[in-house]
Amino acid sequence: MSDNLGDDMSENVSKTVGEGSNDVMTDVLVVGGAGVDTIVRVDDLPVPFADSHVVPRIDTVVGHTGSGVALGCHRLGLATCFVDVIGDDHEGAMLRDRFTAEGLRFEHVLHQSGTRRAVNLVDAAGRRMSFYDPRHPYDLAPDPSLWRGPLEGARHVHASIMPWTVGALADAAGAGATTSTDLHDWDGHNPHHRPFAYAADLVFVSGSRLGSAEDDVVADVLDRGRARLVVVMDGAKGSRVTVREGGSFAVAAVDIPGRPAVDSNGAGDAYVSAFLHRWLGGGDARAAARAGSVAGAWACGTAGTHSSLIDGAELGRQLATAYGGAGRA
After folding, report:
1. Carbohydrate kinase PfkB domain location, by residue (predicted)?
2. What is the mean pLDDT of residues 172-196?
């Protein structure tokens, strides 16, 4: 089987039964980023060196960024389609089963290298350290029909930062759809992230590695790219939003009464999905960031990745609690 999925589609690739349903209107098309997480709970990070550690039950769950954004948007009521390359393996079956159970439209092609996976260490405070296995060859290039069909009628495209998905951002811009991406723990220098930083309308990035360079990195993205705004997500420090025509503001992290943080896996993806929900619903950047903060905090209240995603009704209740009338969804 060739690593280039465009070489011989009939022989090397199979598609889901959703093929041919491109007349369906889609609010959000998520491209790339499906995978499976194995969660290992430890007392502290970093883990002291030892021959072995006894840990609580190890769980393997549907995870990764594209899954989280797609499931989060779907749970919030947005018409969502998710497309990706996965393997014909146990992990790929886990993904298909979860998305079918959720009623999420998932179109995919298969590749011999398998399904992405990660092992995530999570400490008692909910902090995580992820060991990511991307599986696919870096130069993998699926046939663009994977996303071009579902792109027809899509309002918005969110691309995970697999190398091949940047093409979906270009196609979306050409089709008049708005776009977004999450750069995760970009340091502002790694060249892998740069094409995504400059190609999306809404750019999300973790503050974990930006440090004192944050202002310069945000300014560079706005100066050299097409971004309307850049959102720096920074966990317990909240988020910081810079709007091309509207300056900058900060949104504090939210504590949800009776729901302490136990696991930060998937919090950023929950933030992005709720931000998109509010933004595509006509909300401004501040309202969208508040929704993201609530959804991220909600995701941290349950162990595992994407194991308890907030729905629209709960988001509205929590926004009203945190922000009063101004925060209602």
Report:
1. 25-308
2. 95
